Structure formats: structure tokens, C-alpha cells
Amino acid sequence: MRSFLSYLAGGLLALAAPAAQSQSAPSVAPSPALGPPVAIGVDLARPVGPMPPLWAYFGYDEPNYTYMPDGQKLLSELAALSPGPVYVRVHNLLTTGDGTAALKWGSTNAYTEDKKGRPVYDWTIVDRIFDTYIQRGMRPIAQLGFMPEALSTHPVPYRHQWAPDQSYKTIFTGWAYPPKDYKKWGELVYQWVRHSVARYGEAEVKTWRWELWNEPNIGYWQGTPEEYYQLFDYTEAAVHRALPAAVLGGPETTGPGWDKAAAYLRGFLEHCVSGKNYVTGATGTRLDYISFHAKGAPKVVDGHVRMNMGAQFGDIEEGFKIVASFPTMRHLPVILGENDPEGCAACGVQTNPENAYRNGPLFASYTAAAYGRLYALAEQYQVNLAGAVSWAFEFENQPWFAGFRDLATHGVDKPVLNVFRMLGLMSGPRVAVANPGALAVADIRAQAQSQRSDVGALATADAGGRTASVLVWNYHNDDLPAPPAEIALTLRSLPAARALVQHYRVDAAHGNAYAAWQALGSPQQVSGPQQAALEQAGQLPLLAAPAWVSTQNGQAVLHFALPRQGVSLLRLSW
Length: 574
Hints:
The protein is an alpha/beta fold. It has helices spanning about 1-10, 70-80, 125-135, 180-200, 200-205, 225-240, 260-275, 310-325, 360-380, 415-425, 440-445, 515-520, 530-535; strands at about 40-50, 55-60, 85-90, 110-115, 120, 140-145, 210, 250-255, 290-295, 300, 305, 335-340, 385-390, 410, 410-415, 430-435, 455-460, 465-475, 485-490, 500-505, 545-550, 555-560, 565-574.
């Protein structure tokens, strides 16, 4: 890394040169200095299942960042990285306040009451947020929360003044409590859905996903589980009274790997299946999709960051098991409402040094290794996984590379965003990947990624038969230097005599604006030319100029070195 930074500091503006000028094309022979190659085989003629864009889901706490300059820029980039619609989930859409943004805070003032206690609805800020999404072809996961001050059973104190050096519990103020009047809450929900239909049209709003609250099994809900069930019943009745075709889900609980969290998710589903409905008195409540959260647990070990993907996959597996245990519900779409390496997006490096992974390629390789496995895991448990939200956006007017869990800083993209760009370039069904050395989910849960590198792949082939893509990652839990892995990628069932290979790369030296910023001396004041160069450094680059490879009997073998925490995407066309 030091030699790369020295090089970069000497000529940062050269980063704006065409990416095709960097390094060489995939070689036809392995590099002997790197040791035995990792053998990965891809059969383009063996589809194994669809590849819905599970990764095209993003979220954040602070809704007022949506229409700020860097927020709008990033949303445009997110909308552009996917051939289909990108979903956005955000908190605080009904929270009372003047629209001032702060860490883990936002507000819209959608609901107040006059002196006689009569509702006053004001959708000005809500509309500004949703207009920003709709203008970009994005689809909201419209979160019904949090509790307006005028409806809260414990309204004082209402707004928190949380900072990352304070206890997380201090954020759970008046907005987190049940309503004084469930019927007034239901009417608020009804009015919002009806307003949305009037503003955007029924056809548009039918494509949205509505949801109730966030993580009611922890401090975000200062009521009992039964009170949450009651709130859901009133919400469901209101949503579907306003728009019968609306899609409403829940409960957005977190941590199914914990016993109490698992019990909460299970209890909610039992209520929807066989509980007494608080509105109708009948049995059960309509539920259109199921949502829960999964989080990892990084820590600092001997001066370096060690990730823990095993904790995250423990949550996913246990959540899938719970869903699969309900025969009448296992067909419902499942959304991982937050799917992240840990739990606090607004906790930066200064207060949480374990979050140093967020700025560089470690976050990128972790994301590739995690999302790349979700398809097979959902098939294993026979659940209908529809999406997995990366709870990461941007933090307006914060220090450069402060270590928040974000996708960009000051309009400059971080390496992790390039993995989502890679996923967006893949098309067609998933095809068979043979990788004898790959880790299984059981290995990940047992922390095998701290013992050896996790070198894996995900591949697709276009149904038209003229393109294919292979995503390859070299991930390790420990953020330590190590030799690269030599990859021997065998492509089978290629229907042409030759194929054009485009090799995209994210690693310490490619698609890494953080390294470029460090090479400048880590400035907090960035000039115009530096800003432009950093923005260019944050884009997804080609590792080499596109190159043709020949096939023999429908087969080709590509050899390349993949650094620790590196991710490659190889796109083939013929």
C-alpha cells in the first residue's frame, strides 16, 4: 500500500486517464511466484436459478439528506447502477420536526394537531423526499414511523441530541412510544397512502413497499410486542382501505440469531396467522412480505480490524428457518431490511475503531462475499428472498472519510459502491460455479474466514447467449496484508471461437478513492481539481484494456492475480 500511495501522491491527476491504460490483460499462464492457483470453473450452459437484484436496496436513518446536494448526487448514481428499479428504505418519515437533519435524526412534520386536538396533515417534506426518488425511477420502501409528537404517549423529551460518543439508548425518546389513540394513527396512515395515490398515481404506488416501524424488538419501540401487533393491525387496515393492492410488510426486527429476537419475529408471524385482529376481531392479519435484519460484529484484534460475517449469516439462517416454519407464509417475499457488517451506521472511526473497514476495499470484498451467497442460502431454506438492504448512504457536511457506514463522502464514491456497480453489470440467470476450495456458510459461521482466505465466485449468463459475467472475490476477516491469490478461471460451454473480456477491479489500487485521498495527505479542505480527481478515483475501473481470448472446444482458461480484499468482475461477450 505504501508504494502505491507514494506513486499516487506523485501524480494523482493521472487517475483521470482512461482505465484501460492500467496493468495488463488476463494472462494465459499463471504467475509461479503466487503458488498453486485457486481453480474456479463456470459452466455457462448450466443455469442454476434466477438472479433477482437482491442488492438493489439501500437505506439510511436521516431522510432529510435525501434532497441535499450530495444526497441527490448519490441517489442518481444508485439509480444508474441497476437495470431495474432500486428500492430505498429510510427512517423518520412521520417524525415531528422542522426538517433539520442530524445523525440518526430526521423529520417531516407530517402530522400535528390544532388546539382542539384535530389532525393537521402537511406532506410538504414527505413529498420532497419521495419526489426525489420518483424522479430517478426509484421505489420507496415507505416506512410508517416514527410516532408524531402529538400522538406519542410519552412526548417529552421528543427530539434526541445523540452523538456517536453517547449511549445508543439516548436516541429512544418520545418518537419511539405507542400512540395515545390507535384510531388517529390509523387515520394518519390512511391519509398518507391516499395522498400518495393522488400525487403519484395508483399504478406507481402499487409498486412501492410499505412497512411498519423499525426494529421493534429493541429500543426503537418503547411498547410491548402486543402493542406492536395492535399498531400493525391498525396500520394494515388503513393501508389496504386506502389502496387494496398496496404491499405491506413487517416486522423489521433485528438479530434473529438472538433467542429473544427470534421469539419476537416468531410471535409476530403467529399473530398474523392465528392471532385475534385488534381492528376486526377476526383471526389473523394480512401480511404481504416478511422483513428482518442481519448484522455482523467486527472488532479490533492486535491492532487490526477483524470482521465477523458469521454473526450476520447466523441471523440470516435463523430468520430463514423461522419463516420456513410457517407453511402458509413461507411463500411470501422476504426482505432483509438491513443486511450489514455491524449495527451503527452513524458511528465513525473516532469512537468505534473497528469501523475502519468502511473506507477501503475490505468493505467491498465483504459485501461481494456476503451478497454472493444469499441466492444459494435462500434456495437451501426454500424461502422467497426478494431483497437485502445495505444500510448505507451518505452523511452530508461531515468530515472526509470519517468512517461512517456510507457509500460516498462529499460526493466521492467509496470502494464498496463499485461492488454494487459490478452486480448491476451482471445479467441473466445464475450458472453453475465449481469451486472446490470455497467456504460453506457453516464454515463462515465457524469463523473460517479468519483462518484462510475466502475465494469465491458468482456467475451469470445472458439468456440471449451472447454475454456472461463472473464475480470473483478474495475476502478475509482480518485486515492484514497478504500475498494475492492466483486464480485459474475455467469457462465452459462458450459458443464462439473467441470472446472479448472486460476485467473490472476493486482493490487497494483500483476503484479506491480512499487511497487517493490518503495520497493527498488526507486533507479536510479539498480543491476543485483534487475533488475531480477523487471522484474519478472512486469510479469502477477496468483493470486492463479489453482483450480477446480464444476458445478450444468451447472452453477458455483465464489466469489472474487477485489481491487480498480484491474483487474482480469479468464480463465476456461474443
